[in-house]
Amino acid sequence: MKRLFRYLPKFFQKKLLKLLYRRNGKRFQDFEVHGNWKFFIYNVNGHFVPSESLGWFVDYDYYEQRLFSMSAFRYKPQEGDVIVDIGAGMGEEAIVFADLVGAKGKIFSLEANPVIFNILNHVLGLNKITNVYTFNKAISDSDRSVTIHVSDTSYLGGTIGHEKSKAEVENFEVEGVRLDTFLANNRIEKVDLLKVNIEGAERYLVNTLDHCLDKIKNIAIECHDFRYAVEKNEFFKTKELLSSYLRKNGFSVSSQHTGTPYIDDWIYAYRQSAK
Question: What span, in angstroms and rounded, lies between the C-alpha atoms of 163 and 88?
């Protein structure tokens, strides 16, 4: 559909999208295309929302519902909260987090892929969001540059620190930083929610948490054992590693049991005193 759609005159593209969104009870106004028709930003119901899909289901409510079903399933951010958002993508969650924490709250969003990082900043600017602070960095086990391997099929498939697969055709050198270093450099003394979605690189968090775990109240990490189940790459087998580490350090750890692997591989952790 993308191939056919892109060759239509812009007038007909907008008309078709407006019709399709209207059928779903949504008010579409305009859209932008980025990355040679790989990424889109839709203006729907007064919000600018990013997507990899050329479709008519994406809007703010969609991302809000997705957030509460995954990264904010156990802990719903409150007004004034501080969130560290590792693997922020194009801002799909940041635009919702920004409303939840309000003007007194702060979101520190890290996105390693420089192409996606630019779209993230653009989305935040279009929505006039001012309480999200962005960083083109990758969380790593040391403070040094790392190579990001980016998938040709989806930016969500990009990761660091493992052998490049056939689907990964582009590399970027970006600044790597330990989580404890990042918190110290930005004078972050408390984290109400640490959200992590970094395609297997969550394994690098373990030895960077030792010196800052006391600052963190709630944690939501998408582990990627579901990728291990398909690709048999040990790099993605992280759920037990992280769950065990957090339990040993005084956190209660849980997961969902929906039958959908990429949802059930999220782990949620909190200290008993931080309920």
Answer: 23
How confident is the model over 6-19, as pLDDT tens digits? 889 999 999 999 99
Which pair of tokens denotes residue 250? Answer: 């005084």
Tell me how far CA of residue 47 lies from CA of 58, 104, 117, 127, 186, in angstroms: 11, 21, 19, 7, 29
Q: Using CA atoms, how far apart are residues 183 and 190, in angstroms rounded to an integer?
A: 9
Give the model confidence (pLDDT) of 186-203 as tens digits. Answer: 999 999 999 999 988 899
Q: What is the set of domains in the chain, with CATH numbers? A: 2-51 (no CATH), 79-274 (3.40.50.150)
- Decide if 171 contacts 133 (C-beta within 8 A): no
User: Would the pLDDT of 275 be above 50?
Assistant: no
Torsion-angle region of residue 274: left (phi > 0), alpha (psi -120 to 50) or beta? alpha
- 53: how many CB neighbours lie within 10 A of its CB? 12
Spatial CA neighbour of 80 closest among 59, 106, 55:
106
Q: CA 117 → CA 89, 158, 211, distances in Å?
A: 7, 13, 28
Report in angstroms the alpha-carbon separations of 75 from 81, 91, 255. 11, 19, 12
Which helix (H) or strand (E) covers residue 268, if one does? Answer: strand 266-271
Identify the residue whose tokens are 């991302």: 63
Distance between CA 217 and CA 87 in Å, rounded? 19
Instruction: Give the helix/strand (H/E) hosting 249.
Output: none
Q: Which residue has the tokens 């960095």?
A: 137
Would you tell me how many other CB atoms lie within 10 Å of the CB of residue 6?
A: 12
**Distance in angstroms (rounded) separating the CA atoms of residues 107 and 257:** 29
